[in-house]
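For this section, I looked closely at a protein sequence along with its fold in token form, which I now present.
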Amino acid sequence: MRVNVQKLVSSLIDVSATDPDDKRRRKLLSILLLGIAASTFLMLLVLVVLVLAGNNLEIDGAVWIGATALLFGCSAFYWSNRNPAIPGWVTSGVFLLFLMVLFMFGDTPEQLAGGRSLFVFTIPIIMASILLFPAASFIFAGFSAFEIWYLAVQAGTLYNTFAAIGFFLVGLASWLSARNMEQALREVRTINKELDQRVADRTRELSEALTRESEQASQRQAILQGIADGVMVMDTRGMVILTNPALIRLLELPLDKILNKNLAEVVRSPKVEPEDQEMILRSVGYNQATLAPIRVKWGVRTLSVISAPVRDQKGRAIGNVAVMRDFTREAEVEQMKNAFVAMVSHELRTPLNAILGYSEMLRDGFYGAVNEKQANAAERILNNSSRLLNIVSDLLDQARIEAGKLKFDYKPFHVSDLTDNLHSVMDKIARDKGLELTSRIDANMPGQLVGDTHRLQQVLVNLVNNAVKFTDKGSVDVYIYKVNEQHWGFDVTDTGQGIALDDQKHIFDPFRQLEGTVTRSHGGIGLGLAIVKRLVELMGGQIFLKSIVGQGSTFTIILPFELPRKEEKEGEK
């Protein structure tokens, strides 16, 4: 039953497109259209039931017209989106313009231009960066700003300049997140292409080796035994005449269920879906050339399968060789990328809501005339936008670390600067949660050390921010000390909820969050501790964790101890 539902959902959202980016955007548009149509239909159904029940409910005719128009509009755009002859960007662009026009009739001009309904104009801005291209968010931010100007003129009210600025800030945040997501997807495709090419090269090399050594069974067997990927050789009838231990481990089948069996019998397993069975038989049975690798699910594993013909010295095909590689980890990475998109979308809501909220206060004159409070509200808008930029910064740092392009700037620094800067950043955040943030420097610590101040500060702030986030009452303490003549370190101790022993081994994994529903309420995309660990390791240090559930956690950083040279001290003076 679940498989049938999954097939139905896939058939509804899948579209035909050769370009992977176009296909991804079309699928997102299909999901949005189906979701909006279903929600609108349910709303209409509820209204009809209430009216028929005699609740004396008076519903404005504009509601019926707007909902019906939205329902028919979604149907039309859904058909257009599935039509490969119509470019995806055309359908998406017209759909967003349709939404903006429809929003104009969703409330009075006064409320749309500067009231409770102002927020609806941010929806097309966010959607544009995902459905079209990242920079499209700025275009639709301009459309929204123009639209509220037009509505203000119609209503005879002042133009809401703060709202227009807020639209472009939303556009900036959407552009940054969408651009980073597309860069990550391009990197994944590049990695997959390189991996597939490597497998194809190895398969061709194996095919040539098997052809040359077809009469020397012992040497051929030795080659197969040494290959980490699963290999099976078939004759012209499709019978498996040779295999290796790696294949047995991958398929989790005994040797007698593979050797001297037809390939169709081997793949006819409850662990393999019929569609994947057909794909394997079609790919491996093609003996004219080496085809591109295919990916199939085999139980809990994802396998990459590539086949090549085996030829004799005269070039005649005498069989096939298939190589199966465990692709599970790479598949999980792709899945994590998809999960990342969902998490980033979730994380954008909080700062965007703050932007809208404070913009609304400024717009409605909540603080009266232009004064210091209004300036503070504007500052908060910028702070929430900065939060989104910090998320993107974490992603960029992670990408640089993985690519080996992160640079360090080692120079003398004052140890006290670490705690001073920490308090300037974190004091208010801790105070707002009712926590006490303290810091201590051991008397044995010298006044100056050599290191990358920016990265050290990043590590310390990240750990303290994480401690504050997961501590509801009590304190967070930072202690900087000299470990020995070769090392120094610092502890970040909190009185928070603690981390279970089974979860501690995953705490530093990228994009990994423990107890999803709990951490989701605290926000984050699961990169902070992963970046901390990699930064510490790149600086030649180590990170340790001690935690007891219900009592708190202590993160310990140990780093190489290096004093500044005399001339460096004098130069600083």
User: Anything to note?
Assistant: The first strand starts at residue 230 and ends at 234. The chain has three domains: 2-188, 213-326, 408-572. Residues 161-212 form the longest helix (52 residues). Confidence is low (pLDDT under 50) at residues 516-521.
